[in-house]
Amino acid sequence: MSAVTVRVPAKVNLQLGVGPLRDDGYHDLVNVFHAVSLFDEVTAEPAGRLEVRVEAALDARVDVGGVPADDDNLAARAARLVAARLGVEPRVALRIRKAIPVAGGMAGGSADAAAALVACARLWDDPGEPALDRDDLVELGAEIGSDVPFAVLGGTAVGVGRGERLTSALTRGTFHWVFATAGFGLSTPAVYAECDRLRELRGEPAPQPSVSEELMTALATGDAKGLGAALTNDLEEAALSLRPSLGRVLDAGRELGAIGALVSGSGPTCAFLAGTEEDADGLARALDGAGVAAQVHRASGPVPGATVV
Ligand SMILES: C[C@](O)(CO)[C@H](O)COP(=O)(O)OP(=O)(O)OC[C@H]1O[C@@H](n2ccc(N)nc2=O)[C@H](O)[C@@H]1O
Ligand SMILES: Nc1ncnc2c1ncn2[C@@H]1O[C@H](COP(=O)(O)OP(=O)(O)OP(=O)(O)O)[C@@H](O)[C@H]1O
C-alpha cells in the first residue's frame, strides 16, 4: 500500500467533572467529549525509518513551533505501538498538517496520535483478516494519553476513569460553535495541579463527579439552549486563576450573544455555543472584531473520529 491520509477532529469538553487525585497521578473524571469540525490530517507513507514532519494546514494560522518533529511526537508513539502490536518495523514517514490549536485544550496532539493509529493500522494490517479493529485502536490509544481513545471514536461520548473508558452518547442534530484561541498555551498537568491547589486552599474535598442529566437530555433532544445552560468545566476556575485574561474572553462571548461559554478542557481556548449556524457566523465576526482572541474559528459538532480520506 502507498500513502494513507487520516482526518481527525478536535474536541471540546461539554462537561468536565474532576474528582479526587488518584495514587497514579491522574484524576477520576466524568468527561463528556464532543468532536468538532476543526481537523488535523496525518499522512502515513512507507519509508526507510520512522520520520515525522509537522506543518500548519493550508489556510490555518497554527503555530507549530512547539510541536516535536521527532520520537516525542504523540503520532510517532502511536506508530511504534501499532508496529509492535502487528510485529512489523515502524518504517513510516508521518506528515502532520495541523489546524487544531497547539496546547489549546482541544486535544490536538491526541488527535494526531489517533490519526496515526488508524493510518498505520491501515498501512500494515492484513486487510482480509485484520488483527486490529476499532476497539483495539481505542484501547491502544489509552496507552498514549487519556484523550486519545475519544479522538479515534469521535461523535459525543462520556469518558470515565481518567477519561479513557468511553460510552457513546445519544445526540440529535448539529450544534454550532465558535472557538477563541489565545496567544499562549496552558500545560494540562499545571491546570490540574492548580485545580487541586485551589480546592485545598478552600479546604474543599474533591467531589465524586456524576454525569449531568440536563446535559444528556439537551444532547438527546438537540436543545442548543439547554446544552448552553448545562456546560460545565471543573478546570475552568484553575485555567482562569493561571490566566485571568481568559475571563474577559468569556465575558465578551456572552455579551455578544453566545448561549453557552466555557474554557475548553484545560484551556486556554474558549468555546462558545450559538443557537444557529447564522448566529455562530455573526458571533465569530463580532468576537474577531472585539480583538480579545488570537484567532476565532467556526465549527460544528458532533463529527466522526479519525477517518481515512
Ligand atoms: C484536560 C483533558 O484534555 C480533558 O479531556 C484531559 O483530561 C487531558 O488529557 P491528556 O492531555 O490526554 O492527558 P494525559 O496525557 O493522559 O495526562 C497528562 C497529565 O494530565 C493530568 N491528568 C490527565 C488526565 C486525568 N484524568 N487526570 C489528570 O490529572 C496528569 O497530570 C497527567 O500527567
Ligand atoms: N502531534 C502533536 N501535536 C501537538 N502537540 C504535540 C504533538 N505531539 C506531542 N505534542 C506535545 O504536546 C503538548 C500539548 O499539545 P496539545 O496540542 O495536544 O495540547 P492540548 O490541546 O492542550 O491537549 P489536551 O486538550 O489533550 O490537554 C505540546 O506542547 C507538544 O509539546
Describe what you observe in this structure.
This protein has 309 residues and is an alpha+beta fold. The chain folds into 2 domains: 4-169, Ribosomal Protein S5, domain 2 (2-Layer Sandwich); 175-301, Alpha-Beta Plaits (2-Layer Sandwich). It has helices spanning 74-86, 108-124, 134-144, 148-153, 188-201, 213-221, 224-230, 236-242, 246-255, 277-290, and strands spanning 4-21, 27-46, 51-56, 92-98, 156-160, 165-168, 175-181, 232-233, 260-263, 270-274, 295-301, 307-308. Strands 1, 2, 3, 4, 5, 6, 8 and 12 form an 8-stranded mixed β-sheet that branches. Strands 9-10-7-11 form a 4-stranded antiparallel β-sheet. Helix 1 links the parallel strand 3 (51-56) and strand 4. Helix 1 (74-86) crosses helix 3. The two termini are 15 Å apart. 4-diphosphocytidyl-2-C-methyl-D-erythritol binds next to strand 1, strand 2 and helix 5. Residues 216-289 form the GHMP kinase C-terminal domain. InterPro entries: GHMP_kinase_C_dom, GHMP_kinase_C_sf, GHMP_kinase_N_dom, IspE, Ribosomal_Su5_D2-typ_SF, Ribsml_uS5_D2-typ_fold_subgr. One of its GO terms (biological process) is terpenoid biosynthetic process.
